[in-house]
Design a protein that fits this description.
By secondary structure, the chain is α+β, with helices and mostly antiparallel strands. The protein is built from three helices and five strands; from the N terminus they run E-E-E-E-H-H-H-E. It has a single domain, classed as Arc Repressor Mutant, subunit A (Orthogonal Bundle), CATH 1.10.10. The chain is globular, with a radius of gyration of 13 Å.
Length: about 100
């Protein structure tokens, strides 16, 4: 299988078969396909909820930079790309 790399131009959406449950401003992702679960912190939840397969990751990064204006834009971009890469590597999202 080809290794996919997260991209600011990419459009991502949750993969079917992933069930989510919010708990105390965090989220648990349950992957029924692989019988695994993953946790997202508050910022991860904000990003996850924006993954609709319609807008590129660069727009989500811009949204996060507007919400978290006290954080360096390069930090937000890097952290968002890292999260997306982890979601891709764990087969929790698909590319549109």
């Amino acid at each position: 299988m080809e290794h996919q790399v997260a991209s600011l131009e990419g459009k991502y959406a949750p993969r079917s078969g992933v069930i989510t449950k919010e708990v105390a401003q965090e989220m648990v992702l349950v992957d029924l396909k692989r019988s695994l679960y993953h946790g997202l912190n508050t910022v991860g939840v904000q990003i996850w909820k924006r993954l609709d397969g319609q807008k590129p990751l660069s727009e989500i990064v811009a949204d996060m930079q507007a919400i978290h204006a006290d954080v360096e834009p390069t930090t937000i971009e890097g952290d968002t790309l890292a999260l997306l890469q982890a979601l891709i590597d764990n087969e929790l999202v698909v590319t549109h």
